[in-house]
Design goal:
This protein is α+β, with helices and mostly antiparallel strands. The protein has two domains: 88 residues, lambda repressor-like DNA-binding domains (434 Repressor (Amino-terminal Domain), Orthogonal Bundle); 77 residues, Jelly Rolls (Sandwich). The protein contains five helices and nine strands; from the N terminus they run αααααβββββββββ. The strands form two sheets. A six-stranded antiparallel beta sheet has the order 1-2-3-9-4-7, with no helix packed on it. Strands 6-5-8 form a three-stranded antiparallel beta sheet, with no helix packed on it. Strand 5 and strand 6 form a beta hairpin. The longest helix has 11 residues. It is globular. About 2% of the residues have low confidence.
Length: 217
């Protein structure tokens, strides 16, 4: 049985993925593994503030095998990749971004509009990753909040800093217990160790460009 890692840093994924968002991937993509899959696993694991030992415990895979996968020495089996993706709270398709006609040299620099990775969670929120990967010090997301969606009733904290820009709709933010209403065109920034939560309390979709440093996906 695969267990989720113990440290959940973002409230959006605490209840898991929406059922319709699970494991959308072509089997051919899995059998033609890109050697960068190991790098993607390492970046996501670190963003979850988890050790190889944590991932080993969650997946039942040995620490040595996981280390070899992350370093590109070994390729994960389909079964192993399913276990790793579920433990890290993503779909297996996370490791296979949509193919574009991008120059290979730009893959770690540019994300085209039709090449974004995205996850939709049970609370309805969709996160689109605008950063090429999670290896750097900044994570950039396009967050889509359907009407009534929320991070949860309880405020949460984590390491780092975050900032955002509301490009559509309205976002209600609670920071240190203070309620702040943000409308299209408004922006915000704060240290992430301050208790915070957020919601779309309207009947229209809200879209926010959200930056978090370091990545805490």
């Amino acid at each position: 049985m695969v267990n989720n890692l113990p440290k959940v840093l973002r409230p959006s994924n605490k209840d898991g993925l929406a059922e319709g968002d699970r494991d959308k991937v072509n089997l051919k993509d899995v059998t033609d593994l890109d050697p960068r899959v190991g790098k993607e696993i390492r970046g996501l694991r670190k963003a979850r503030d988890a050790t190889i030992a944590d991932l080993s415990k969650a997946t039942g895979l040995s620490k040595g095998y996981l280390s070899q996968i992350e370093r590109g020495i070994s390729s994960p089996s389909i079964k192993a990749l399913h276990s790793i993706s579920r433990a890290l709270g993503v779909t297996i398709s996370w490791f296979f971004p949509p193919q574009t006609d991008e120059d290979e040299a730009l893959r770690d620099t540019v994300v085209r509009a039709d090449g974004r990775r995205s996850l939709t969670f049970k609370n309805g929120i969709t996160d689109e990753l605008l950063s090429p990967n999670l290896d750097g010090e900044i994570e950039l997301l396009r967050c889509i909040f359907p009407p009534g969606s929320t991070s949860g009733a309880e405020a949460y904290t984590h390491r780092g800093e975050e900032a955002g820009f509301v490009i559509e709709g309205r976002l209600d933010l609670w920071l240190d217990g203070r309620h702040i209403q943000l409308n299209a065109g408004d922006s915000f920034a704060f240290r992430s160790d301050r208790p915070h939560r957020y919601a779309n309390v309207t009947d229209e979709t809200t879209i926010v460009i959200w930056s978090i440093s370091p990545p805490t996906y």
